Amino acid sequence: MLSAIARKDYDDRRRRQAQGIAKAKTEGKMTGRPEDAWRNDALVAMLRKGQSWSSIVAATKCSRSTLARLAQRIKTNEMTAQ
After folding, report:
1. Do residues 75 and 46 share a domain?
2. Which pTM value belongs to this model?
3. Residues with Cβ within 8 Å of residue 74, at least 6 apart in sequence
C-alpha cells in the first residue's frame, strides 16, 4: 500500500515538474546555456581556412558535434546569402 502511494506521489511530482518546465519555456524563462561566441568564432575561422575536423578537435578540445553544428550554420548562411 505504501509503495503504491509513493509511486503516485512520484508520478505526480514528475508530471507537475514537466508542466512547470513547459510553461517556463513558452514564457522564455528557460533558454538554455548561452553559446560561447568567442570560441565559436574561432572554430568557424578554422573551418573556413579548411583545417580538418580532427586537427580542430585536437587543438581546441571541442566536440565533433559542435563542429558539425557550426559547419551546418556556415553552409546555411552561405545558401541564404546567395
Report:
1. yes
2. 0.64
3. 44, 47, 48
Q: What is the 3-state secondary structure (H, E, C) of the chain?
A: CHHHHHHHHHHHHHHHHHHHHHHHHHCCCCCCCCCCHHHHHHHHHHHHHCCCHHHHHHHHCCCHHHHHHHHHHHHHHHHHHC
- Cβ atoms of 58 and 49 closer than 8 Å: no
Residues 9 and 26 occupy one common structural domain: yes
pLDDT per 10-residue tile (average), the chain, 82 residues: 95 97 93 91 95 94 95 90 75
